[in-house]
Amino acid sequence: MERIRIRVDVDVQRARRAARRLATDLGLDRNGAEMVVLAVSELGTNLIRYARGGEITLSTMQDERGARVLVESRDDGPGIADVDQAMANGSSTGGGLGGGLGAVRRLMDEFAIVSDASGTRVRACKWVRKSERGCGHT
Amino acid sequence: MARVPIIKVGETLIATVQDELRDSDALTLQTELSAAVERTGARGVLLDLSAVETVDSFLGRLLGEVAASTRLLGAVTVITGIQPAVAITLVELGLELKGVRTALNPEKGMALLRRLQRLQRLQGEENARLLPARAGSRNGRNDGRR
Q1: Which of A56, A62, A124, A135 would be A67's cystine partner, CB 3.0–4.6 Å?
Q2: Within 10 Å of residue A68's Cβ, how many Cβ atoms?
Q3: How much is the ipTM here?
Q4: Where are the domains of chain B?
C-alpha cells in the first residue's frame, strides 16, 4: 500500500508514477495502466484545486476473484455541494479546471464517492481483467 | 523537470517535451511559446509529445489553449507524437483536442506545417490581389452616384 500526501503539483506527478508502477506490476496492459494513472491524476488535481490538499492511497488486491488496483482519494476540504452535478460536469467543463470526476468513473471499473461538510472520499478500482463483480471495498 | 527548450527552424518553432509535465511546467511552456511566437514572428509551432505518457484534463485543455493563442498570433500549432494509450484516455476524458492539428510524428508534423504555411501564403497573395480591385470598384460606384 502506498500513501501519498497531495499538496502541490509535484505530488500529483509522484502519485502518477506510483500508480503506473503499481498497475504495470500487477499485470494491467499499457492502456489499462494509463487509465489508472489518469484517474489518479484527475483525483490529485481535484485535491489541490478544491480541497487544499489531501491524500491518495494506492493498493492492490489479489484473491480468487482476480487482481485489481484500488485508488482512494481523501480530503477534509469543504465537500462537494452537488455530487451528481460534479459527476455530470466532470469531463466536459470547458471553463472550470480540474473536475474530471465523471472521467474517473468512466476510466475505472468501480467507483464510489462520499462527500459532506467534513470532506470528500472517492474509492475506485480497476480489474486486471474486467469483471462484473464489485471490488470488495466499495 | 527542466524547462522545455524551444528552437527556431526557418519559420517554425519546435518544442520537444522530454519528460512528464507538471501543471506548472505546462503553464510555463504555454507562456514561453506565445512569447517566442511574438518575438520571432514564427508562422508555425511544432509541439512534440512523444515522451509524454499522461495527458490529463488540465494538460489536454492547456494544449487546446496553446493552439488557440498561437493562432491568434498568426502561427499554426501542430501537436505530434501522441501515444496510443494517451489517445485512448483523451477520448475517455472527452477531450478530443478538436481544433488542434496533430500528426503521427515530428517528420509528418513538419510536412503538415509546410503545407499549411504554403496555404496561408497563397491565401495572403489572393487577398492582396483581390483587395485593391475591390477598393477600385467601390470608387467606381461612388463616381457613378455623383
Answers
A1: A62
A2: 28
A3: 0.71
A4: 6-112
Whether residues A91 and B93 touch (CB distance < 8 A) is answered with yes
Output DSSP code: residue A74. E
Cβ-nearest to A103 among B54, B57, B61: B57
CATH class of this structure's domain A2-127: alpha beta
At residue A98, the pLDDT reads 43
Are residues A91 and B53, on separate chains, in Cβ contact within 8 Å?
Answer: no
For chain A, give the percent of residues with pLDDT over 70.
86
Q: Residue A54: enclosing H or E segment and its boundaries?
A: strand A54-63
In contact, A44 and A10? CB cutoff 8 Å: no
What is the C-alpha end-to-end distance of chain A, expressed in Å? 17
Element (H, E) at A127: strand A119-127
Helix axes A30-51, A9-26, angle to 10 degrees: 150
Residue the block writes with cell 506490476: A25
B75 closest CA partner among B43, B100, B46, B102: B43
- Residues A107 and B31: their CA atoms lie apart, in Å, by 31
- pTM for the model stands at 0.77
Q: Does B88 touch chain A (CB under 8 A)?
A: yes
What pLDDT does residue A96 have? 44
